Amino acid sequence: MKSQPKNRIGFGLHTFRLLLLGSIVSATSLVACQPPDVAPSKTTVIRIAGATAMQPVLYDLTTAFTRQHPTILFEVAGGGSTIGEERLAAGQIDLAASTLLSPTVPNTGLQERSSSSAIRTPIGIDGLTLIVHPSNPIENLTTEQLQALYRGNILTWAEVGGSLTEVLLTSREDGSGSRQLFETRIMGKDRVSLTAVVMPSNADTVAYVAKHPDAIGYVSRAYVTPLLDPTDQRNQSPAGSAQNAPDTPAVKVVALDGQLPTQPALQSQSYPLLQPIYLVSPTRPTGWLQQFIDFALSPAGQAIVGRYHARVR
To answer: How far apart are CA 256 and CA 196, in angstroms?
Structure first.
């Protein structure tokens, strides 16, 4: 007996109903499994500018902080300590990087100080380092010799035990914290010779001296740490700047009065050209600014500071 056509039709309708019901259930399940809409986390940008002496350490500090807090980003610029503090006062940045000593800060000024309403928090101790070309045989200069060189009273390296070649001086731009320290501690009331080539940054000074056999300059120890602490594993990271300069600069460090700005010399404050490095906020810091400063003073932050400068904690 043949099957009735209506039976085949009935089976088809039943199957269609099941498929339709399954599709509805599946669609409902898919919708239920979709994650709810989540608003993206708000990104906060912290702007820092100022001392080029602090650019290497700030690069590492900000990188480490952003790794812990991905929504916090940083814009770090140089320009010198004075420009950094002026931009801070004008409300153009959130923190100034500075090595400037306020009038109330004696010598090293390692305690937190305020200038007007600004809060100056020291996070490390820097030391200005004398550098010459690697071919220069000079190993040490006295303060008196260095002063005479920069006054222009000594014209050839032979007068301080070197070769019979003319001394090529380099200095820093007006507003540099390093220049202020050098002129205060070394030059006193005397002026640097007008023949000195003015450099806009520490990195430029290193590059210039590396290319000129008769040149001399002064830079933050952050740019020559592999030459000062060659066996310290903390100093195996790039010591140049945020642009990652070579680990070992092609210059030579020169002792001042028999001392180099090594970690022990800075910690004991026996080296004559040392200065604190500050993070300066316009008022008492709060929120993420305070958290970043706290990080710089934490054990992890101070370990980073120790790659380039002496710690304060």
So the answer is: 20
Can you give the CATH number for the domain in which 70 is found?
A: 3.40.190.10
- Bridge partners of 172? 199
HSE-up of residue 58 (Cα within 13 Å, Cβ side): 26
Do 96 and 184 fall into the same domain?
Answer: no
User: What b-and-e string marks burial along 249-285, b requiring 16 or more CB atoms within 10 Å of the CB?
Assistant: bebbbbbbeeebbbbebbeeeebbbbbbbbbbbbeeb
pTM above 0.85, yes or no: no
pLDDT tens for each residue of 123-154: 999 999 999 999 999 999 999 999 999 999 99
For residues 88 and 290, is the Cβ–Cβ distance under 8 A? no
CA angle 239, 108, 104 (to 5 degrees): 130
**CA angle (252 as vertex; 63, 80 as ends), nearest 5:** 45
Q: What is the pLDDT of residue 107?
A: 44
